[in-house]
Fold this sequence. Notes:
Blueprint: H1 3-7, E1 26-29, H2 30-38, H3 40-47, H4 60-79, H5 84-88, E2 93-95, H6 101-104, E3 112-116, E4 121-125, E5 129-133, E6 139-147, H7 155-160, H8 165-180, E7 188-196, E8 209-217, H9 223-235, H10 247-255
Parallel strand pairs: 1-4, 6-7
Antiparallel strand pairs: 2-5, 3-4, 5-6, 7-8
Amino acid sequence: MDKELIKKGFRTRKNSFYQKGSNEPFTISRSKFSNFIDCKRCFYLDRVKGLKEPSMPGWALNTAVDELLKKEFDYHRKKKSAHPIMKEYKLNFIPFDHKDIDKWRQSLSSGISYLDKDTNLIIKGGIDDVWFDLDSKKLVVVDYKAQSNSNPVEPVSYLENQYHQGYKRQMDIYVHILRNMKFDVSDRSYFLVCNGEKTPEKFDKKIEFTTTLIPYDTDTSWVSSKIVEMKKTLESSKIPEYNINCESCIYLASSKTI
């Protein structure tokens, strides 16, 4: 097999994959944490062996919605006023104004993070927004979600959707990180779902969105034990077994039979 081809499939920067036995803290992003939960083998090949995942194009429309929402909520953040959707849902909230809010939203360069002392792993992630509950005086984590679905956006069906289970884990991890940053964070978080409507008769150079707040009561009880389990996997000398529920594992295993 072409050696140059193989070379392109591996990471070259030493700090981009785990060095066993090192005393230096190693950073695990929220997305890599989710990868570990989905498939230990793929996580190990990436973080320990340095095997790069195939790149994918960005979600341009989703990113545009995120950026516009951030500008909209930042307007109210500066004014210390409630956004209309907070009033619509009768929530005594305002956007949380913190000097590092812009850094918290940059998942690649900064984000929110803490050092887990039991494992020497830095757990980090980039949040979309944080609101402040004026009644409980607690922070409320909010995640923006853009979609285009013909079905009504309702709390039960949205949270039970098999493709949204990762969303809930994502929120659990964010709350866990912020609490370890010594913030008082509410168990209740929200998904701000922006649904692109398909009902208009014509495009007319615009997409109309309906917005729905989906409450989610986070559960962080599982996070610490998974971090310990993740550390053990990183330190293991054995590559985890193929995962029959992982599309990447199925593809790689099937290719060997050709």
